[in-house]
Amino acid sequence: MAEVTSFPTTFNLGGDLTINRMGYGAMRITGDGIWGPPKDHDESIRVLKRAVELGINFIDTADSYGPNVSEELIAEALHPYAAGLVIATKGGLLRTGPNQWPINSHPDHLQEALEGSLKRLKVDQIDLYQLHRVDPNVPFEKTLEFLQKAQEQGLVKHIGLSETDVDQIKKAQEYVKVVSVQNMYSVDNRKWEAELTYCEEQGIAFIPWYPLSGGNQQALEKLGQVAQKHDATPQQIALSWLLHRSPNILLIPGTSKVKHLEENVKAASIQLSEEDMQALENLND
């Protein structure tokens, strides 16, 4: 019988927030191009409510999703928030149209973005506020000074980064305690492997966005072979692999459908064997 691997089901974020590693990303409850309201408002509300019912206590969003729409829906569906529910949001991107994401991490913009997020989410403090992108046109130190000040003022509890490399994480750590890094990462896209390793060493949560294999046929075939053994879908195996990959990985798969949400959550109960992990480790061979 193949040896089954195991993984912790929770992660301690920032030293004081214990969260389930299967979370929910609220980008997809907006319109096409992550622009405007969703086609089915009521289904989006059902998804958010169902996520909490299923034991998800970490929801990731951003002021740019909609823009504003995702945060507003979260408050509509879930406020007042259940004890232990952690809402993470982000600032640092502008929206000029569907699928358009100009970067702006100037302190003036971040101040406006943070104030808007607090108001829309109906909270006095953001549990986890993430810099959506490092702005090449703004000195990183200026952005970090803003985040430091916002935390000192009690407007944010914890601070995270997104799409940052090890050097940028280290620079940020000179100003604030970095508790999370959100980078693109999946079973078939491991560009940020060094960042994952650094975060694990530092006790920093690593939050993969776009965690599912996207059209890589060779990867999908191998995922499918493992999925057959577990009576699962390739997408569920891709999520399970991430949970097995490193104990500091937090998952935030997004969807606008309750059925799909329930399928994603089931991935947390799949136990991959050492053989399965080895097969997926050599995905591109």
TrEMBL record:
Please list which residues make up the signal peptide: none
Respond yes or no to whether keyword Oxidoreductase is given for this record. Answer: yes
Q: Which domain of life is it from?
A: Bacteria
Arranged from A to Z, the UniProt key words for this protein are: Oxidoreductase
One Pfam annotation reads Aldo_ket_red
The residue ranges of the NADP-dependent oxidoreductase domain are 21-284
The molecular function terms of the Gene Ontology recorded here are: oxidoreductase activity
Asked if the record carries the keyword Transcription regulation, the reply is no
Q: Which GO terms describe its cellular component?
A: cytoplasm
What PANTHER family is this protein classified in? AFLATOXIN B1 ALDEHYDE REDUCTASE, ALDO-KETO REDUCTASE YAKC [NADP(+)]
What is the protein named?
A: Oxidoreductase
Species source reads Hymenobacter crusticola
